[in-house]
User: Fold this.
Amino acid sequence: MASDPIKILIVDDDEQVLIALERLLEGEGYSTATAWGGREALALSEKARFDLMLVDEHVGDVDFDALRKGLALRQPAACQLLMHTRKGRPTSNGTICKWEHAEMKAKIRCVLAA
Assistant:
């Protein structure tokens, strides 16, 4: 019996980012869901279980800190990575540039292996 694919929630208010990351991650064998903003992300997080959540640092419809806390309450076992837009910016364990796709894939593999 095959195991369930790893499920990733992608949260961003930029449709092109959602499409690009969805294609990238599904090409790696992950199952994805996309949310066009914080409210939709919170609603999805109540309906499905996610292993990882990629959350843009600038979603305009919900306060960022409230969004991260709300997602953590609804999905306590899921990892969260903060996506930013500044290429070349040093990343910490919990951040990644959404435009650096090779680094994104490597960071996701590392986080999920931990």
